[in-house]
Structure formats: C-alpha cells, structure tokens
Amino acid sequence: MLVTFTRYRKRLGFATCGFIAPALLSGVITTHAADISAGVNAYHRGDYATALRIMRELADQGDAFAQYNLGVMYSKGQGVTQDNAAAVRWYRKAADQDFAKAQYQSRGHVQQG
C-alpha cells in the first residue's frame, strides 16, 4: 500500500521547517504537495497509469516518497509488469535518503531473493 500523503507530511516534520516558509511563498511546496497528492489519489482510484507517471516524474527528481511508492507499484505489478528487481532499485533509492519504510522493504526483498 502506498504511504499516505498525511503520513509523509508528518515525516517532513521539523527537518524542513527552515525552508518551508520561503518555499510556500514561492509556491514550491504547494506544487509538489499537489503532485504527490494527485499521484496518491490516482493510485487509490486504481488509475495506476496516472499514478505511475506522476510518481516516476517526482522519483526522477529525487523524491524519496515517490521512489518508495514506485517500489510498491513494481512489487505488486500495479501499472507495470511485476518486477521485484525494479522494486528493490526504487526502494534502495528511497532508503539511501533515510526513508525508513523503504529501508525495511529493500531488506525484505533482498532476503526473499
């Protein structure tokens, strides 16, 4: 299951407080949040093609949340052919940014072979 955006926002917590106010003024956070939210909403509607497109674009920009969620989609074959190797690659990218769920998932997939 994709991580919900609410949990992602909570995860941002105090670590990003220093840049949130200036970013909100410039519209950066609002646009990014809208993109993430659109991707999660598409996923929950079963519109995996749209979710995949949005998450891939954000993941390619280095977003750990989107990278983790792409791992989920590849692991379950949602919108893509199921590919555990691709899932592990996306989980590892997110895990390298200290995304805890991705660290757990990447270890689990590696142990399963």
CA-based gyration radius: 14 Å
Unreliable stretches (pLDDT < 50, length at least 5) are 8-28
- The SS-based structural class is mainly alpha
Q: How many domains in all?
A: 1
Q: What level of helicity do the residues show? A: over 70%
The CATH homologous superfamily is termed Tetratricopeptide repeat domain
Helix/strand order: HHHHHHH
- Which range does the strand content fall in? under 5%
Beta-strand segment tally: 0
Q: Which features would summarize this protein structure in a list?
A:
mainly alpha, 113 residues, 77% helix, 0% strand, Serine Threonine Protein Phosphatase 5, Tetratricopeptide repeat, 7 helices
Description:
With 113 residues, the chain is mainly α. The protein has one domain: Serine Threonine Protein Phosphatase 5, Tetratricopeptide repeat, CATH 1.25.40.10. It has helices at 5-12, 17-26, 28-45, 48-60, 64-76, 84-95, 100-112. α3 (28-45) runs antiparallel to α4, α5 (64-76) runs antiparallel to α6 and α6 runs antiparallel to α7. The longest helix is centred in the first third of the chain and has 18 residues, at 28-45. The protein is globular and about 30 Å long. Residues 8-28 have low confidence and may be disordered.
Record the SSE blueprint.
Elements: H1 5-12, H2 17-26, H3 28-45, H4 48-60, H5 64-76, H6 84-95, H7 100-112
